[in-house]
Amino acid sequence: MILTPISTSSQQGREKLAALADRFQLADERVRQAVSEIIAQVRSRGDAALVEFTRKFDAPQFTAGQLAVTPAEIEAAHAQVTPEFMADLELACRRIREFHEREREQSWLLTRDDGVITGRLVNPVDAAGLYVPGGQGGSTPLVSSVLMNGIPAGIAGVPRRVMLTPPDGQGRISPALLVAAHRIGISEIYKAGSAWAVAALAYGTETVPAVDVIVGPGNQYVTEAKRQVAGRVRIDMIAGPSEVLIVADGSARPEYAAADLLAQAEHDPQALAICICTETALAERVAAAVEGQLPELERVDIATKSLRDKGLLLVAADLEEAITLANGIAIEHLELMVADPFAWLPRIRHAGAIFLGSYTPEAAGDYLAGPNHVLPTMGTARFSSALGVETFVKKSSLISYSREALLADLPAIDRLARLEGLTGHARSAMIRKE
Questions:
Q1: Quick one: 50 and 187 in the same domain?
Q2: Same domain, 325 and 220
Q3: Are strands 127-131 and 213-215 parallel, antiparallel or unpaired?
Q4: What is the pTM of this model?
Q5: Residue 319 carries which DSSP code?
Q6: Active site residues
Q7: Where in the sequence is the domain holding 148, given as residue range(s)?
Q8: In sequence order, which residues have a C-beta less than 8 Å from that of residue 431 and are 6 or more positions away?
């Protein structure tokens, strides 16, 4: 069988868990160097570099005049999508917007009795760049990525949202992507992919504007490019391969668990699909269900490699241990296929998104539930969160003193500044006493 149950108490089980706890990794030196050279080319040559890379890797006849998507292309795209697609798009937009509207942050002020006013001013960034992968040369358009990145930016109030996505071999963008972007108010779209798209967003070219925040998924070149430009711009996160961890007790349906493991495995050969069962017999039934369902996948080769190389089927002593292990793994997607998932929810501390109950597949969260599907991977859920409205805003502190309030605080300011050896700081406060 492609998955074999392993006891968490065995030597093999302990080794597998130790590897999971230390799975964060960056791109190798070859990728880092290649991305560094790409960024340098875009910084120095602008549009010419974008065209050169696009011709080499995406569309051989591409020209600089094709970089910007035209209004005519967007209008034509609407005629190429089906009514069913538009209905699904409307439903997804509504659900995602309803959820993210709750994430809005307000500016606030705090007034002390002595007249000092402090607070926080919340403002959106001026411009956000949304990167959307090509999806197998445009044949599998990642519409959900457009919505999950673009809708929170719009709710945040970002005045300029820019989308970049690679063209297909003929220099075109999937009509579904264009319609989705237009539906959420994005009309500034450029044809560029991979690391050169990220570089263009970070530094700007003659055609593509520089932005303040870059978000969106991608391969190791996109991820490494985002890492290298982080600091000049904000990025959403350094993401690794997608992940799922299913915690299953005796109430779980093995065929459901198997289907969700396969859904994860079909993403990518590097995708991580894990199931922790509380019973050996259940784990064996899950393994058998995986074998039975695997041939039904269109991406059977990808899923097979993912499960063979990365997949893991563990057997814990009980649910208590399984939850403890889940917290230590800090997975991107955590599914609780247990009898009473809400009873265990307070025990969950580290997960990108939590799916409660056997009728809540990860796929529901990927497309329609509403919460964002851009989530921390590689154990970074220990300290980071899903992409949201807050990704696109920054906060400024507010401070206002009256003369009387400053005079009251002067002795403490003076002492603390002199303790740190900063007499200029002390004097800048004390001079206001004169």
A1: yes
A2: no
A3: parallel
A4: 0.95
A5: H
A6: 332-333
A7: 29-114+122-235
A8: none
